[in-house]
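Cont'd.
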Amino acid sequence: MASLITCPHCGVRPKEEFSIRGDAVPVRPAPNAGAEAWYAYVYVRDNPKGRIEEHWHHTAGCRRWLVVERDNVTHTVFSVRDAADVAKARSGEVA
Amino acid sequence: MTLSFAHRHVLEDHIVGFETKPNPHHLAVARRPTILSVLSHAGFEAGVKAALQALEGVSVRICGPAEWLAVSHSVGPEALLRLVRAIEGVSAFDHSDGRVLMQITGPNVRKILSKCLAVDIDRDRFPIGASASMQIAHVAGNLARTGEDAFEIIVPRSYAGTLFEEVKEMGREFALTAAFSPE
């Protein structure tokens, strides 16, 4: 169930402890990337059904940003990772 | 012009009337504990944690990765701040006046706490010495297990009144008493 999130730092926690920011898929463009890229990053969103990745903030716990991979139909949670680790993995740096 | 400030505990107005003897289930509010917020710089986490735990008379509460609360009833804020800031890779600040510490004890303490927690505090899952930040009666606070049936709650000062009343209400079933802890 999506109402229980296994925080990598705190363990199993209720969803009430978190605030959800939104889609974790868009990657922030470079500062000089141009209006089109920034427009797409800020405003353009898909509305997918099924497996999604979101930024969750563990507000009442460790106050870390997490990337929660879950299914918005069945509420199954597939993975919860620290957003810093995800960013490091994306940029190719060893976490 | 000189101003002199008198220390007045935030729960002073909540704990009024004649003092009763503490029941088996009791909520004790510490009058002036020392509470420091400690953060570790990247890469120094393990060293800072070990150094904090080595300090005498200091109880370390885990808030998250690289973040702790250092609690003491014997060392004053200035003295402890000096000790903690001597550790390499540390940022520490005095939160003694910004946080309120209360200890709840009693054989059915888990039954009382489980009314306002959504975290597993079973004897085995939350052993003595364990601590974590969590939502306590909708307030983001820190819970620590300090004894067999003893827990300590640390909450921001501005939420202490709400939490105190909530915990008292939840403890009514077991005749929970509340008072400032004796110095």
